[in-house]
Amino acid sequence: MYTRYKVIYYCDFCHKYRLSKRAMQIHESHCTLNPSRICRMWGCVDGSCPICLFSKARLSGKMPEGDLQAEIKKWYQVKEIEGQVNESSRISDTLSK
Ligand SMILES: [Zn+2]
Ligand SMILES: [Zn+2]
Prior knowledge:
The chain is mainly alpha-helical. Helix content is 41%, strand content 4%. It has four helices and two strands; from the N terminus they run E-E-H-H-H-H. It has helices spanning 21-30, 50-59, 68-81, 90-95; strands spanning 9-10, 17-18. A two-stranded antiparallel sheet has the order 1-2. A hairpin with a 6-residue loop joins strand 1 (9-10) and strand 2. The protein is elongated and about 60 Å long. One zinc ion (ZN) is lined by residues 39, 41, 44, 47, 49, 51-52.
């Protein structure tokens, strides 16, 4: 029998955890409860993307209305029409963190 101790890294903002420091650093920089988060939504330039709006709503203390996933899909559809995105696989990439 052997025992292992693991360091668990918790997000300062939403208290999610990861077992890897690097993964948590990445999460924290994009966490929607981080007031100075860096948005990594494709095509987001001025804080107008669904995730930025979601983040702002959360930070102001109210849960945002509507379906975030649907809003994100819509955002990508518009961007695809504008020719800014050619791979919709980015949707799952954005949501997984
Ligand atoms: Zn977090
Ligand atoms: Zn954004």
